[in-house]
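Follow-up to my post from last week.
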Amino acid sequence: MKRSKLLILGVCMVFVLSLLAACSQDNTKNNASGASSEPSETQQATGTESQSAKEVKITFFNTSAEINTVFENLFKVYKEEHPNVTVELIPTPIGGAQIEKFQSLLASGNPATVVNLDAGTIFQYKDKFLDLEPEKAKYEDLALTGAIDGALLDGKFIGVPYSAQGYGLLYNKRVVEEAIGGAFDPATIQTRSDLEALFKKIEATGKAPIMIHGADWSLGSHYQGLAYSLQSNDVETNRQFVEDVKNGTADLSTNQAFNGLMDTLDMLKKYNARKSDPLVADYNKDSADFAKGEAAFFFMGDWSWAVIGPLEGRDNEFGILPVPISDNAADYGNTQVAYTEPKLFAIDNSGSTPEQQEAAKTFIEWLITSEASQKAIIGESGLAMPYKNLKVESSNPMSSAIAKYVAEGKTVNIGVTNYFPADWWAKTGASMQKYLVDKLDRAGLTKEIQDYWKSTAGK
Amino acid sequence: MTNKKTIRNAGTFLLFGGPSVFAFFAVVLIPFLFGLYLTLTSWDVRVGDHTFLGFANYVEVFKDKVFFTQLWFTLKYVFFTVAIANIAAFFLAFALTSGFKGQQFLRTGFFTPNLIGGLVLGYLWQLLFSQVLPYVGEKYGWSLFETSWLTDTDKGFWALVIVSAWQFIGYLMIIYIAGFMSVRVDVLEAASIDGANGLTKIRKIILPLSAPAIVICIFISISRSFLTYDLNLALTKGGPFNSTELSSYHVVQKAFLSNEYGIGQSEAVVLFAVVAIIALTQAYFLKKLEVEE
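User reply:
Got it. Predicted complex:
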């Protein structure tokens, strides 16, 4: 009798313990890697010979979700070239819970070694990342002039830029040329009136002059973001301007750049292809209609090539114009396109071992300089890399058009938006949407945006 | 002997109940208690701070006007979703137990939406509302459908209600069918002999005798529709201009987008209390309607 009791009890104990053991297995592994970080530092100082033979596994957290598979294949190539380093991809879904996933990895003490994140997110978590100051000179040699400066966060180099994007008024060359009956020179459009005159010609041919994508990220982040970036061509001055708006010393309602930009939006609204229902905001449909010539212009950036490139029956030639903000051609912004390095590679400094960090540094350099990687990033993904002496040429006509502006130094640096709170685009984007459908007038819009800024003061 | 039995029972319980108890503790109870603790601190992923704040976060919740507008919006949403889903499911179940040909097939058909995840369902209906219906509306000149429902604040609300109800109906219908099956045929026959027609039979016999099913259905649909998140995300993303944000959506935005974890978590606790109070009181009162056969 007693024996059977013990037997049953034993079975139960084994069962429960095995459950607990299954859970604790991961913990011990983590502890081991955490604990090993200290001795290995001394190891590094005394000699690196034992290190090269050691297997290193690093993880790569990717928020450029549209190219998850491109990265995955690239990591296999890296493994072939560097057999002792394994790079594991942590993918995120497009438009899905990307930041939430990053936060939960960080909070559980299990952060990814390398991250590919928005510059603004990296800035918010800046204490968690490795300072890359020792690497800065090397990347400055490799990169286009100003590219590294553009990626600095509060003056510090913690993220390596790998792609550059520009946005503005993309145009479908065929539709524009059919409307004006000849070759189109983008340099002829330098003011808002120039643009409206062109729109009238396009409208006369029965095509919609412009497509405004009614999503909060396009209106809030990209369109409204211009207003702060156009204050001056210096990011620090623009940051100060936003601080002034927060504490009430600067007023958007009398601000020239802000009002100029919104005056242009009033004009664009009249010619909008989605005039009857501006907020539908189907990104694929809007891109396709533009690419097939239903609309001549599209307020968007070169990233839309990812959708437009593979389309059947699309037009082939596209270009870009800046968003004009006044009728004075010399005003800053009328001949400059918005340009940014939206995503940066950064290395974790909160839970990774020095071996992992070293491996990550080598890996990031390989991602920037190797032909295989450039083929994947430029060739397959259609992105532009802000570096010199690239071995691969871009197939994306939109980024080529932007590259011309970059080469002439005609860009608007929108780096100021990296320092904005994470909910800025969503909160003010809602106000921009109301303005787009005339639920708010200019005064109401200005008030809602300023109220938002005031609510963030001191945070 | 009894001692042995107790231990054996305990062993059997551990063997079969142990895993679920363990899972319940690991993924429900412990996170819930830890979450409660977090509402009392200034916790932030970025700095990993754990300073004790007391009830400061809850004070902030009551200052967050948007949260209460959205809680009211959620209450309206729950009311209409629960009402539409339950009435439709009740009559569907009634129709599908009358014994005509093909009712098995139809039952499966009505149940299917419940098997599709909220996200997929949301994208599916988004396409319907913003592409298909406007196309049809324009073609036949139906002004109701000419613009997308999802870009209008009022119609956006009804879009959410319709899709959620559509998702719940199949599930609730199955429970109602099970409830009707338990109504004994002889009771119904006796009622027929006494001269009761269809409607009287529903009102006097079927409704009271399937009260347990009604209680369960209303309870399930209330708690599920209060916590709708995925459908909200996929269908409207809270838009246009945050007018269709349900409470859970607002909580997630607050915590993960605005980085105000403590306040977001406190709002989740307030939401939990509201759901618990409403669901339990309705179950208490409806239970009184149950009758013995």
